Amino acid sequence: MLAQFIFALRTAGIPASITEYLTLLQGMKSGVADYSVDDFYHLSRATLVKDERLLDRFDRVFGEVFKGLEPPEGDPMQQLPEEWLRKLTEKLLSEEEKAAIEAAGGFDKLMELLKQRLAEQKGRHQGGSKWIGTGGTSPFGAHGYNPEGVRIGQEESRNRRAVKVWDKREFKDLDGDIEIGTRNMKLALRRLRRFARQGAATELDLPDTIRATANNAGTLDLKMVPERHNTVKVLLFLDIGGSMDDHIRVCAELFSACRAEFKHLEHYYFHNCPYERLWTNNRRRKESEVPTFEVLRKYGPDYKAIFVGDGAMSPYEIIQPGGSVEHWNEETGQVWLDRMTGHFRRSAWLNPMPEAAWPRYQSAQILHKLMEQRMFPLTLGGIDAMTRELSR
Amino acid sequence: MAGFKSTESYIASRDLEVAVNAAVALQRPLLVKGEPGTGKTVLAHEVAASLGHPLIEWHIKSTTKAQQGLYEYDAVSRLRDGQLGDERVHDIGNYIVRGKLWDAFEADRPQVLLIDEIDKADIEFPNDLLLELDRMQFFVYETRKTVVAKHRPVVIITSNNEKELPDAFLRRCFFHYIRFPDRETMEKIVQAHYPDIKQELAREALNVFFQVRGVTELKKKPATSELLDWLKLLMIEDLPPEVLRSSDPKTAIPPLYGALLKNEQDVHLFERLAFLSRRQQGR
């Protein structure tokens, strides 16, 4: 049962490992989650999920695997409401038996029997024909195979508590494939940061100083190392206008996330596909236009190029000279894109359209191919994959 | 098993209790994440108090190295002593400075060790502590001595998610994500901290607080600790609860907002919203 749960988690993309599985078993053995489904849920969550973005997915898998599992928790004596007994009489007993029970002392007798069994029973029980639990044939309990079985413990009040904890899906917002906000994006982009020592020597290098001093026969010889600086350089190319209008908000967020994260960040705009001219200010486009060659010359191959665009256009805009919707382009967009990706050692394309929609646009597919599969959706997961690709 | 439970001053949800108890029972580190101000660090204090163990705090900065938690070899003072001809120089043990982990390992009774904000450190930091936290022992090269934990400490690690933690490290931990408390829990938390707060004031303040949190464009949403600070201010100023009723457009910005809104863009946003609502009322 549990192994199946682990496999279901792994299929859903939660990287639960054998060690964690063993930890879970160990935790159950040590009695951290005694006889309570809720506690088992909490324990398995704390053991198997290590990333809040996966919590929602975990809830879904848990709900699926343990569907129909009822919690036989709490003090059973206090949780035996009158209705159970009423149901007993309605469903379990025939009219004659009812009459017989009435004669033999009525509900009290039955209540006593029930109490007696509950008292004898120590823990959670499953199967069997006598004890109260789940899945048995005793008239008392839940999910019994006894066709007339009284569904004790499936009263609404208990049921509500049982399913809801993981069915509430409170971690939905944290799922990496769904939400995208400035802060989350920053997180993903941080991966791009790479520390390297550059600049003036400002820190005392103790090991080197000791070595140098020893070599100097004990006379102090101070050695310095440069301080750490964030040296990641990013060049951002943003598609603007036309079909991109729907995605302005997400792109603005990406932009502000980038701004704060990198020391060297430059951005240029293009429309649909980059051609021989780019611009830096969309409002004063004509004045701020820069030849693309100029950009390639100005920024070294160590800049990481990120294109942001939905890639939704006519295929001719990419593969045909003069295909641009705005001007006559001598060379195709494909040539320009190849030039740019060839110049910058690391490049990627971010697409604000959901990944499932890409196959519908031929142009998006062409771009995906031109980028050598380095087109990523503009979701947290996509940015994560992109930054991993860019910082390899 | 004694177990960790909510206390008078700290309201823990059931899932947090289970996670803490699992970590204590299986002697593995507990990694706690969550929005800033939801009581991650306070949790360690509460766990220490409820288990009756002393708490050792290790606050991580961007410059902290894993080695500093174990021990440091003070080469500079040995060098100085050597040049001055001090006798101590012959025993290298005199220059080994113990770190927090060493303290926790060598203590005569179990300890609670808090490694606060582990994500502030270098990306390799957690990896450097893998073996130490797993086996609860480490080797001191200078003195050729192995330090083994007499009692495995309860290790609580907090993270603000600024860096991704390595998988190998995560495998060894229990994980808990502190969710932002719902209104009911929040009322309990307020009650726990300020038992003699006026009911009406608390209610109105919570209304305002959840309204502020409901504004989606906020850069930094106020969290539990901000709410508690704000309530304290309100109590000190002894403001009547009526002031908090937002039906009056002039007070659409909550009084003493400095405790709740922490950057000027958010304050501007609120002023704009207040202006809009005033104009609507004027119509």
UniProtKB/TrEMBL annotation, chain A:
Which Pfam families does this one have? VWA_CoxE
Q: Which InterPro entries match?
A: Uncharacterised_CoxE
Disordered as annotated region, ranges: 124-150
Q: What PANTHER family does the annotation carry?
A: BLL5662 PROTEIN-RELATED, BLL6692 PROTEIN
The identity of this protein, by name, is VWA domain-containing protein
Q: Which organism is it from?
A: Dankookia rubra
Taxonomy, top ranks, is: Bacteria, Pseudomonadati, Pseudomonadota, Alphaproteobacteria, Acetobacterales
